[in-house]
Amino acid sequence: MTSSLASLESALDYTFQDISLLEQAVTHRSHSARHNERLEFLGDSVLNFTVAALLFKRFARIDEGDLSRLRANLVKQASLADIAQKLSLSQYLRLGEGELKSGGFRRPSILADALEAVFGAVFLDSGFDAAHKVIARQYAPILVHVDPKTLGKDPKTLLQELLQGRRIALPVYTVVATHGAAHNQTFEVECAIPKLEVKVLAGGTSRRAAEQSAATLAIAAIEAQGPGKGTRRRPRKSAQLSLPVAVSQESST
Amino acid sequence: MTSSLASLESALDYTFQDISLLEQAVTHRSHSARHNERLEFLGDSVLNFTVAALLFKRFARIDEGDLSRLRANLVKQASLADIAQKLSLSQYLRLGEGELKSGGFRRPSILADALEAVFGAVFLDSGFDAAHKVIARQYAPILVHVDPKTLGKDPKTLLQELLQGRRIALPVYTVVATHGAAHNQTFEVECAIPKLEVKVLAGGTSRRAAEQSAATLAIAAIEAQGPGKGTRRRPRKSAQLSLPVAVSQESST
């Protein structure tokens, strides 16, 4: 059912001295008692440290808060599941019947955990330098594209920074409507930036989620205006729920 | 004002190739621009990983949840500040005027951060093996005394496990009084274990805190009863607020 671990080794560019460690790393607890959870604990920490060291070296001038934010983004479940997918890790997973039937081999949490366990297995097999090398290899193509100014920042923060950079007043978020019963509500939020004549609407299952969506739309609307400073713009007119809305108005300056 | 770094090196049993790294590690941001916060980021992660690896090796049979709990306890601020104190780290700290005057060299957060930065500096100076060795040396006397069954568990959990081990019904927590205004309240909570005739009262600034204190008192009261199984006890009588109260009653069995 599962592919030969030799091809996983070649994808990792690492050959195990004790292949049973790799076998354990791809074994979910639903499959057998010798499963990967302890290796995952170890792998999670060698991964966190390695990515910290890689970022520390690559970005010599950014502060520790930014380093933390970048790392959190690079080691989060979705990022790990992406790497796991590139390694075709799901082909090697050993899952119990129930997990197999419910598609566990596609589940991001199972993939991310197994990937961490693989890193932990490499560390156990050969020590830190080998684990560092294996992890660095997987992250090399990702690190090339990391933008320390934006990666891992939420849309509201990005919008705020964009406006501050242009010395424009902060956006105003307003809940314009709520729908549904108390524990199953959706929120409609407006994000307005009068100076740029931007007014967008977005929905979400929480006020916060709706605000973040609205901020994303607002950024898109501002970027569509081009690199202007908020004083001269092409007048535009449109009005549509949940899409960028630039309210037409001649610039007063 | 600050002691020579050579004596810190000997306390760490490590000699820096680049002593300016150690100097930076003991420099708080209030002192100068070349401060220790980036090193702290790096040191925090090499510390977390090293302690994970030490625990993984030492406790071959405990699960990843227990490993996480143990690690969290070993790397928390108070634990780091303890180690910093044994190293007399405060003597080497470079603080700005304000921090100096307000006693910053005694503050656990500043000590813990500087210690992490020192570990990060060792890693930068010589790589992982050196950092592992320095950290392992500081933790060796601590790891000897780690009890994986109890370390880092809160009193309510410990009490619950103690009772489950004796097949006794769980304790009942009751708020018996609150004092003070809404945002400055104190709570008085009773913890009762009828089967053991234990009834204790404790106060706290939150319900949770009061419950934890009450659990601590309940454990003390049970331990004072000796290793009995809850069926035969010396009858005792006492009644005092915020102290163990064993309600006297002849055992019915």
From TrEMBL, chains A, B:
The active site is at D44, E116. InterPro entries: dsRBD_dom (IPR014720), RNase_III (IPR011907), RNase_III_dom (IPR000999). It is found in: Cytoplasm. Its EC number is 3.1.26.3. Its cofactor is Mg(2+). SMART domains: DSRM (SM00358), RIBOc (SM00535). Residues 154-224 form the DRBM domain. It comes from the Bacteria. Coiled coil: none annotated. It holds the Pfam family dsrm. The keyword Magnesium applies. It catalyses: Endonucleolytic cleavage to 5'-phosphomonoester. Residues 5-127 form the RNase III domain. It is an enzyme of class 3 (hydrolase). CDD domains: DSRM_RNAse_III_family, RIBOc. The keyword Ribosomal protein does not apply. Belongs to the ribonuclease III family. Digests double-stranded RNA. Involved in the processing of primary rRNA transcript to yield the immediate precursors to the large and small rRNAs (23S and 16S). Processes some mRNAs, and tRNAs when they are encoded in the rRNA operon. Processes pre-crRNA and tracrRNA of type II CRISPR loci if present in the organism. This is Ribonuclease 3. It comes from Candidimonas humi. The gene is rnc.
